[in-house]
Write a structure and sequence with these properties.
The protein is an alpha/beta fold. It is built from 6 helices and 7 strands. A hairpin with a 4-residue loop joins β4 and β5. α4 packs antiparallel against α5.
């Protein structure tokens, strides 16, 4: 009798700031598919949260759908590139992993980059440490962006996105330039 393959779902996520090599949805999918094929897993679906922050599970439609499908018994394992792609909030990560482990039968999550299987006994300890680091990395990125904005303001260089401002555009030298067509609309309004 042929052994039934483990059913896995692939979870991928990128925030808008993380569209770099190795983190794009396509790159994550390729790695996860190769991992599943190597382990002779059956990929039964994919969940992709594009342009979603990992700071919270709120608003991540595909992540929440994946959790519901897991609770409904539709899958055995979830495969994700890394902890930071799954979630950047330690509490969310551990809460979700524990919910999945308490299902009957339990659903595991495998984090390829960290080589962590949540159904492994030592997995939760390592996961706790690494997810705390992922959360701190997210905070550090925020702090760095905030610091860069403050420095620009102190230097008299306000950070304004001109693509949302009617009547102006950015010139080749980076200065503001009046957009002639849109300027007539602004003049009409005033």
């Amino acid at each position: 009798m042929k052994k039934e393959k483990t059913k896995v779902y692939i979870y991928t996520r990128v925030s808008t700031a993380m569209q770099i090599d190795g983190y794009s949805l396509d790159a994550q999918k390729s790695r996860m598919k190769a991992y599943a094929e190597f382990n002779d897993y059956e990929i039964v679906g994919e969940y992709d949260d594009a342009g979603k922050s990992g700071k919270s599970i709120e608003g991540r439609v595909e992540f929440n759908r994946m959790m519901e499908d897991a609770k409904a018994g539709k899958l055995d394992y979830i495969v994700s590139k890394s902890i930071s792609r799954f979630a950047r909030n330690t509490v969310d990560t551990l809460t979700c992993i524990r919910e999945l482990r308490q299902l009957d039968p339990p659903v595991g999550v495998f984090f390829e980059k960290e080589n962590i299987d949540t159904l492994d006994a030592k997995g939760e300890l390592i996961l706790t440490i690494l997810s705390a680091l992922a959360q701190d990395e997210s905070r550090s990125i925020s702090d760095n962006i905030r610091w860069a904005f403050q420095k620009k303001f102190q230097a008299g260089q306000p950070q304004i996105t001109l693509n949302r401002m009617l009547g102006f555009e950015k010139g080749e030298d980076g200065t503001w330039k009046i957009h002639a067509e849109q300027a007539t609309i602004v003049q009409y309004l005033f």
